[in-house]
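Practice problem 4.
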């Protein structure tokens, strides 16, 4: 397998790094690009060309080796490496709390506070009233107690950390009784049995998958029992012949035997969604009122704030959680605290929370507003090209984030087909566009659900389709 004549010729034509670098210096485009990046891109492009020449399956021509061609490639690569890898996308999936796309969008109030705290020093761990070291949680503790009714509160990095930390503090080396119907796995490999093992607590499952009775818990209690745990069935539901013990009954049982009761609420919400025509779910306040000793939940699921794990409950227990040295490894960052505090303050008026917090806004958005966006987008795309065929579709959005899996959210979608392109090609183009537009494929059409698309994103979608058609 030697090199043939043509390949040798092409290799000789391959420009040198220095020549392309000199050429790059004459172009304004490279003024704002660090020299190291330009150099790295030139080397990469030349190396790719060399491999392509030697690869018998690729047809390279002398044209590909021309300076201008090579420089064009370098430009493309340099532009790519100057774009942040973490970038905004347009979520046209209709999944409101989309863990892969960043879960919850922050309210304007949260963003404003976050920017101030990001830019300046703050009293993060400094008690201004006494001029001494203070607690990192103090800024959110009062508001959490105020809106939940709990006596005490703290926060960590996420809810997985909250569960781990609480189990480690309250039940290390002891048995934790959980119903077999609640041994949850949620996305990203959070599984109750695994987290339990990592915490050093011993899982003591009771009941069956579909039915667990109070007697099952009571029979399992012995001198090694450290905790009764209830876990929210976030992303699934058990229907049919079922029985489940309520938190309140567990609390009564726990009190009788002197064993604390913890609830992992998963999503955790302060607003009663049934007021907005959605399925009734117990709120954080309900769990506190039922007498749970400790309740944990996420900051960025139905709460609609930043990623955080919130722990509320009885003072003594929360105090011991605060003192756990493991806490230091799971601690929350100041930017998160800033966004979380502002988000929580909005819950003082639930109607205001629903109005101001994007996650809640999108979930409770009237169908008519979604329809208007769909009609507007269809109009914009229709006018741009006659190769596009469009259909307005009545499909359902999803809550996502392992919350309200049974909630149906009727929505309006724009389905697009393009003459001369497969639906997979459309999906790929949109995904690689800047900003990327993430939709889904159904019935051989590229589907965009307007529930999760903002009105000011419609022109960006229009531009993406124009770019795509221009390249056809
Ligand atoms: C989502 C969820 C978690 C994990 O929360 P994160 O904030 O994603 O770490 C834990 N338990 C339950 C029941 C959940 O639904």
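Answer key:
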């Amino acid at each position: 397998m030697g090199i043939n004549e043509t390949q040798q010729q092409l290799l000789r034509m391959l420009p040198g790094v220095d020549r392309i670098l000199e050429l790059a210096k004459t172009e304004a485009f490279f003024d704002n690009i660090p020299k190291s990046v330009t150099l790295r891109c030139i080397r990469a492009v030349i190396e790719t060309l060399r491999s392509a020449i030697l690869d018998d399956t690729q047809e390279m021509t002398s044209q590909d080796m021309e300076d201008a061609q090579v420089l064009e490639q370098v430009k493309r690569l340099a532009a790519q490496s100057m774009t942040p890898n973490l970038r905004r996308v347009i979520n046209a999936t209709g999944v409101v709390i989309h863990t892969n796309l960043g879960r919850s969008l922050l309210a304007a109030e949260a963003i404003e506070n976050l920017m101030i705290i990001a830019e300046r020093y703050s009293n993060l761990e400094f008690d201004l009233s006494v001029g001494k070291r203070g607690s990192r949680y103090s800024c959110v503790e009062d508001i959490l107690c105020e809106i939940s009714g709990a006596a005490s509160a703290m926060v960590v990095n996420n809810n997985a950390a909250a569960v781990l930390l609480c189990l480690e503090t309250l039940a290390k080396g002891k048995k934790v009784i959980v119903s077999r119907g609640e041994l949850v796995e949620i996305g990203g490999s959070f599984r109750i049995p695994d987290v339990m093992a990592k915490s050093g607590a011993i899982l003591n499952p009771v009941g069956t998958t579909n039915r667990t009775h109070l007697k099952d818990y009571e029979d399992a209690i012995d001198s090694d029992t450290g905790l009764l745990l209830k876990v929210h069935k976030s992303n699934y539901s058990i229907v049919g012949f079922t029985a489940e013990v309520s938190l309140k009954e567990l609390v009564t049982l726990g009190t009788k035997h002197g064993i604390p009761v913890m609830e992992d609420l998963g999503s955790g919400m302060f607003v009663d969604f049934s007021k907005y025509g959605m399925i009734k779910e117990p709120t954080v306040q309900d769990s506190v009122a039922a007498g749970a000793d400790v309740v944990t939940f996420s900051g960025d699921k139905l709460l609609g704030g930043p990623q955080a794990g919130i722990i509320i409950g009885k003072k003594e227990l929360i105090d011991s959680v605060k003192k756990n040295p493991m806490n230091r490894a799971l601690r929350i960052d100041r930017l998160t605290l800033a966004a979380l505090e502002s988000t929580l303050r909005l819950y003082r008026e639930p109607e205001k929370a629903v109005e101001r917090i994007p996650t809640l806004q999108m979930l409770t958005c009237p169908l008519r507003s979604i329809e208007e966006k769909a009609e507007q987008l269809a109009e914009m795309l229709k006018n741009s090209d006659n190769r596009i065929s469009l259909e307005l579709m009545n499909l359902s959005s999803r809550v996502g984030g392992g919350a309200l899996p049974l909630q149906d959210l009727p929505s309006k979608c724009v389905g697009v087909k393009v003459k001369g392109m497969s639906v997979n090609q459309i999906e790929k183009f949109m995904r690689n566009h800047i900003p990327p537009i993430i939709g889904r494929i159904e019935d051989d059409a590229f589907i965009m659900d307007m529930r999760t698309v903002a009105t000011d994103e419609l022109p960006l979608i229009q531009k993406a389709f124009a770019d795509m058609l221009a390249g056809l």
